[in-house]
Specification:
The protein is an alpha/beta fold. 37% of the residues lie in helices and 17% in strands.
């Protein structure tokens, strides 16, 4: 049976923190692959700033070259609000031989009680909770806690720096940075 790690998010934009978490979890939990699943509209956020086609393309560029990383666009194809339960249900039907591990940060571990059908989810998948500065991994739900060295970077931080004309070099894969420049997104200005 293949052990698959799932990392969901808006990836607005995908950055080194996403890649770092995915690689650490893959190695330390001996997963065969990591599937990045970009959301159309997450239930816990008001809006997604950037069109899904740009986010998907940047994510594909970000994971290119890592044979263990793959992008799965099923939530984008489904459109609408993305509930983890619906995604996991679809994946378990399509890939019945896979053992699914859903990777979440400390912020989402704290939010688990508010997740749609979380009591059903914990019977379908294994949660891996990754430490994040300012958040605890304590929860009444079964979560495999994984302490990793934090990279204190976020998509919001990157977007704000881009809008302010500040450098984000080394925070994004070069291919993602080039895509942002070429498409003049996030209010990009040369620093």
């Amino acid at each position: 049976m293949k052990k698959i790690g799932i990392l969901g998010g808006t990836f607005n934009p995908p950055h080194i923190g996403h890649l770092w978490i995915a690689e650490e979890v893959r190695i330390r939990r001996q997963l065969d692959e990591i599937w990045f699943i970009p959301t159309w509209t997450p239930p816990h956020k008001e809006t997604v700033i950037l069109d899904a086609s740009h986010r998907l393309k940047m994510l594909q560029l970000a994971v290119k070259g890592n044979p263990y990383f793959h992008v799965n666009a099923l939530e984008l194809e489904r459109e609408g609000t993305s509930y983890t339960y619906d995604t996991v249900k679809e994946l378990t039907v399509k890939y019945p031989e896979a053992v699914l591990h859903f990777i979440i940060g400390g912020d989402m571990v704290a939010y688990l009680p508010k997740w749609n059908r979380v009591d059903d989810l914990v019977n379908m998948i294994h949660f891996i909770g990754v430490s994040r500065p300012g958040y605890t991994l304590d929860t009444p739900y079964p979560v495999d806690r994984l302490e990793i060295h934090p990279l204190d970077v976020s998509s919001t931080f990157i977007r704000n720096r881009l809008e302010d004309g500040e450098t984000v070099r080394y925070l994004l894969p070069d291919a993602v940075m080039n895509y942002i420049k070429e498409n003049q997104i996030y209010g990009y200005r040369e620093p």
